Amino acid sequence: MDELKGVYKVKDLKLADEGLKQISWAESRMPVLMALREKYKKTKPFKGFRIAGCLHVTKETAVLIKTFVECGAEVSWSGCNPLSTQDTIAAALAKQDISIFAWNGMSVDEFYWAIEQTLHIKPNLTLDDGADLIFTIHSKHPELIPDIIGGTEETTTGVKRLRAMAEAGALKYPIIAVNDAETKWDFDNVYGTGQSTLDGILRATSILIAGKNVVVAGYGHCGKGVAMRARGLGANVIVTEVRPIAALKAVLDGFTVMPMKEAAKIGDVFITATGVKDVITEEHFKVMKDGAIVCNTGHYDVEINLVHLKKMAKGVREIRNHVEEYLLKDGRRIFVLAKGRLVNLVAAEGHPSEVMDMSFANQFMAQLRLVEMFKKGKKLEPKVYDIPPEQDEEIAELKLKTMGIKIDKLTNEQKKYIKDYSAGT
């Protein structure tokens, strides 16, 4: 496949020098992944393996890609969202002879075209964020499946999709759910999404958060993080939910909980984080305040029904970068950020490098696990698998070490006590 090495399509190769500096900065903030790179680059365990990746093209993703390459892999990459690619990073990767097909502002057709290009290397490993790559292989290129030993999935939406495929008997090769690792979703999803979502809103709007009624739709890991950070900036946070347990958690965490129909009347800023379509629809737009701001931090652009909003509007204009003003027929204005796509990646830079360090360490280790099992002749069934608990612990321990933090260890007596079922009062 050497003839495909370094094939690319990016916005402008002249942006590469700026991208290289940004990647360098990310490397300085991602010590766990860099330690794994240093550990495995001499033995090159990925030599002879081809990875097709579909994941946001950010400086952090570039560190992961470079780690795979330095550890022997051949890589071909596309972005997993039409508006999340950082063009400086795509250019930097192309300049380093990495096959990359990504630019900011892709159409939907161009987005899927880019995925198709990554498959020209005939991958035996896949790495996905949202499962669009995996689904493309299954629906359009089943001939590639016999050579694919497995894949990994980065995000909640993708894992849900893949578990549904597995349940229906439609999944044809094994997937490791990186998203469900404790060192991923309790950190990346909570602290990463929380901080980067507010960062995206502030960069796009420059509004004062303090005193605003901020409505957070969904109280999963991502919604929890957003609610925490909004409250930290002084917002009055309202949570909407459909799951009783999640709603109860939000109440006991000190947030107001109510249906979206009620929240829509009083909200100043709306943030969807559910992974479900039609969270905000015409019935909600009808009762929103003049000047309400609406945005999404879920993977797909389906949570805010913009078709409904466009029908209600007599005019739409871009009033600021990543801010569209919908002027409704009754004179009210509703502002939509990032065209309803991921506000933290479209209007900002995505999660901080420090938190992606653990997520991408998990990606590296999960891909390595697939390779090592293949080399030993072990074959996984086509199901969705969790990260092993020992991997979670290893990555957490590495992260603490890089932070200069030490913790206690169990004594032998304590270890015995834990396993002694006869011990009582």
Explain what you see.
- The termini are far apart.
- The protein has an 8-stranded parallel sheet, with helices on both faces.
- The model has no long low-confidence stretch (mean pLDDT 96).
- The longest helix has 24 residues, at 182-205.
- The protein has helices spanning 16-28, 31-40, 59-70, 87-95, 108-118, 132-140, 156-167, 182-205, 221-232, 244-252, 260-266, 282-285, 306-312, 343-346, 353-375, 389-402, 412-419, and strands at 8-9, 50-54, 74-78, 99-101, 125-128, 150-153, 175-177, 213-217, 236-240, 256-257, 269-272, 292-296, 313-320, 323-328, 333-337, 384-386.
- It has 17 helices and 16 strands.
- Pathway: Amino-acid biosynthesis; L-homocysteine biosynthesis; L-homocysteine from S-adenosyl-L-homocysteine: step 1/1.
- Keywords: Cytoplasm, Hydrolase, NAD, One-carbon metabolism.
Number of strands: 16
Neighbour order of strands in the largest sheet: 1-4-3-2-5-6-7-16
Structural class: alpha/beta
The CATH class of the largest domain: Alpha Beta
CATH superfamily of the largest domain: Adenosylhomocysteinase-like
Instruction: Compute the CA-based radius of gyration.
Output: 22 Å
Q: Please tally the helical runs, counting DSSP H or I stretches of 4 or more residues.
A: 17
